[in-house]
Design goal:
- The protein has 416 residues and is of the alpha+beta class.
- The protein has four domains: 1-77, no CATH class; 81-91 and 337-409, conserved putative lor/sdh protein from methanococcus maripaludis s2 fold (Beta Barrel), CATH 2.40.420.20; 141-215, Helix hairpin bin (Helix Hairpins, Orthogonal Bundle), CATH 1.10.287; 255-332, Efflux pump adaptor protein, beta barrel domain (Elongation Factor Tu (Ef-tu), domain 3).
- Helix content is 33%, strand content 35%.
- The protein is built from five helices and 22 strands.
- Strand 12 (285-301) and strand 13 form a beta hairpin.
- Helix 4 (141-176) packs antiparallel against helix 5.
- The longest helix is centred in the first third of the chain and has 41 residues, at 38-78.
- It is rod-shaped, with a radius of gyration of 57 Å.
- The model is unreliable at 1-35 (pLDDT under 50).
Length: 416
């Protein structure tokens, strides 16, 4: 077995070599021989390395670009976007419209001046009466009896005074004949003077009672309208000055002329003067315009409301207004120089005062401002802003100076 194993391996190489020499496919080609060259292997490795490096560099470039893009987007998202508007020149309106309280030119409660019972009344609410017209009658039996008694007392006093006068004259004649003493004559004269004084006192009492009796007739003190009647026939009437809680019988208003009281804000008080014209409007009749004149003012600012009380008188001979009506009084104000108008939703109320946010060079600046007139949706600014400023609309409470923002301009109606 060992001999066979040695023969077989010797024979196989030879056969293999012979086959290799006879077959042209088994011979190596020049390209394969070149590839197996160490220099060629190095070149391929360098090319592969360069390609890998380029691929890695490109991947890193893409990643860096993406990171920068994300960083820029994050930074842009962190900057607040705001809508801004530019103020308009001047005031929205040259008028100052304020609520006014309409009162009658003369407003008077009417009381009884004497005690008694209401006998009759002649006018009810809404009645127009003239000065001196009889409104009601009061029955005063006690006053009537006192007056009769006082007149009788006056007659007695007058009779005593007449007798004292005759006696005094007689004593004076006897004194001339030295029939009586000077003392007796003087006493008679004194009695006459005292009696005459008693007559005068009695006359005064009669006149007082007659005056009280005249108050039985309650008359209108001026031309006007009855706005209230608080009594009826048979009511017990107490004199207005003699009772702690007198009853008001009638209430009268003079409505041919009316007074309208208006509270002018302190900031506008210097623009309102006596004799200025004003126009009144009423919500219940918006087409009606009534002219009035400023006749006086309080000449002092109310320390509670910081307003000036102004009276505007109105001719109401046609009866278009009623006392107690709620009206708006329009005053024409002179234009304020360098004033601008901005929407009301731009204002910031801070502890330091009223501010607005202005965008300058991409940053926020809180600017203090002064309001002239408030028109509701817009306000007039008299100081702090110009028409070139970009004012932030609907500013947030966290808005502060120095914040970077993106500004987008809108018009006065809030649309881009």
């Amino acid at each position: 077995m060992n001999t066979q194993e040695q023969v077989v391996p010797v024979a196989e190489p030879e056969v293999a070599t012979a086959h290799a020499e006879q077959s042209p496919i088994a011979q190596p080609t020049p390209q394969i021989q070149q590839a197996t060259n160490p220099r060629g292997v190095r070149t391929i490795a360098i090319i592969i390395a360069v390609v890998l490096f380029a691929a890695i560099a490109y991947v890193l470039y893409l990643r860096s670009t993406s990171e920068k893009r994300v960083a820029n987007a994050t930074e842009d998202a962190a900057v607040l976007s705001v809508n801004v508007i530019q103020p308009t020149t001047g005031s929205q309106s040259g008028d100052l419209a304020l609520p006014g309280n309409v009162v009658a030119f003369t407003d008077t409660p009417i009381y009884s001046r004497t005690n008694g019972y209401l006998k009759k009344w002649y006018f009810d609410i809404g009645s127009h009466v003239r000065k001196g017209q009889l409104l009601a009658e009061v029955d005063t039996p006690e006053i009537d009896q006192q007056l009769d008694q006082s007149r009788a007392e006056l007659e007695r006093m007058q009779a005593n005074a007449d007798l004292a006068g005759v006696t005094s004259n007689r004593w004076q004649a006897l004194l001339a004949k030295h029939a009586v003493s000077q003392q007796e004559a003087d006493q008679a004269r004194s009695n006459y003077i005292a009696a005459q004084a008693a007559v005068d006192a009695s006359k005064a009492n009669v006149r007082r009672l007659e005056q009280l009796q005249s108050y039985e007739r309650i008359t209108a003190p001026f031309d006007g309208v009855i706005t209230a009647r608080n009594t009826d026939i048979g009511d017990l009437i107490n004199a207005g000055s003699g009772s702690n809680n007198p009853r008001e019988l009638f209430h009268m208003d003079a409505v041919n002329s009316l007074r309208v009281y208006v509270a002018i804000p302190e900031v506008d008080s210097d623009s309102i003067h006596d004799a200025d014209q004003a126009t009144l409007t009423e919500d219940s009749n918006p087409d009606l315009k009534i002219s009035g004149t400023v006749v006086r003012n309080a000449e002092a600012i109310d320390h509670t409301t910081r307003t000036l009380n102004v009276e505007v008188d109105v001719d109401n001979s046609k009866g278009v207004l009623r006392p107690g009506a709620y009206v708006f009084v329009h005053f024409h104000l002179p234009a304020i120089r360098n004033s601008v108008t901005i929407p009301s939703n731009t204002l910031l109320f801070r502890a330091e005062g009223l501010h607005v946010g202005v965008v300058r060079n991409g940053s926020v600046l809180l600017v203090p401002v002064t309001i002239g007139q408030d028109f509701g949706n817009t306000v007039e600014i008299t100081s702090g802003l110009t028409t070139a400023d970009e004012v932030i609309l609907d500013p947030s409470d966290s808005l502060a100076s120095g914040m970077h923002v993106h500004a987008q301009a809108v018009n006065m109606r809030g649309q881009s």
